[in-house]
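Handout for the seminar on molecular recognition.
Each group receives one record of this type.
Step one: identify the two inputs.
Step two: read the structure output and locate the region that could contact coenzyme A.
Step three: write two sentences on what you found, then compare them with the reference statements printed after the record.
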Amino acid sequence: MAKHVRIKPLESFEDFEKLLHIQRVVWKHEDLDLTPVHQFAVSSRMGAILLGAFVGPELAGFVYSFPAVFKGESCQHSHLLAVLPEFRGYGLGKALKWAQREEAVKRGYRFVTWTYDPLQTRNANLNLQALGAVSRTYFPNFYGLTPALCLGPGIPTDRMLIEWSIRDRRVKSRFEGKARKPVFDDAALPKAQARKPGGEDPFHRPGRPNLRLDDEVVLVEVPRDIKALAGRPDLIAEWQTGLRRTMTAYFGRGYVAEHFIFGDSSFYVLKKG
Ligand SMILES: CC(C)(COP(=O)(O)OP(=O)(O)OC[C@H]1O[C@@H](n2cnc3c(N)ncnc32)[C@H](O)[C@@H]1OP(=O)(O)O)[C@@H](O)C(=O)NCCC(=O)NCCS
């Protein structure tokens, strides 16, 4: 991007108002589902981290986290990350997350957490690959059947909890651009869930999960682009049900989602904890 990018704290009502616009554009939320100005106002004075990415004079995206408790320890829980569509793919999302990390480290935290829909593969790639976070917790229907947050009518709002150990070497090396991209042989590795053979792209069905594998590394397939299944809520529900069963079983046995393979076939990479 030719224009100058700056990441800085958002503190004025004028900026908070702009966050309503960004939420409407990015998530197409009704007013009832927006995080309101008064929430940004109170929490940013009371320990939240609220940062904006400016491209020239324009607010192109933001990240918002608030103080929370994770396993008995104070952390920041990141609730919103958004970049306007015309500014995507230039690194702003990552820049916002790294700035959030820097501020959280400065304030003495060890963890930033957040949840995301595990069928959103780009987010999986951002969280597990680009940022070096991990997940070991699956929440079925985390937000209830809030229509704005569902992948389709009546589809539960399943989420995975992200743990970002912001002082760990795994995360630091990604920040410094020193992490080697791990290579996984997805054809050879055992799969706890995979598409059924046949089926026309992108409308594959998931096969029956295999919940008994005991290997060090296990793959779990998800559709590459869940949005391409928008007209097929039955298929979305099938993949979600399979993923829920698989992740719940393997997380319950101590496996951790550590990597994501984003390809024509996309997989979570689970490692024995
Ligand atoms: C998620 C979002 C903030 C990313 O913003 P962005 O400025 O486009 O992100 P970046 O350019 O910094 O890319 C960040 C990472 O996202 C992932 N990503 C971005 N585009 C991708 C693509 N086409 N395919 C796969 N991964 C992609 C990659 O991991 C990428 O890192 P990499 O370049 O090192 O591989 C933006 O897409 C958005 O606002 N989405 C809607 C809201 C949302 O999903 N919020 C996050 C909830 S967890």
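Reference statements: The pocket of coenzyme A is lined by residues 26, 81-83, 88-94, 116, 122-123, 125-126, 129-130, 262 (CB under 6 Å). The radius of gyration is 19 Å.
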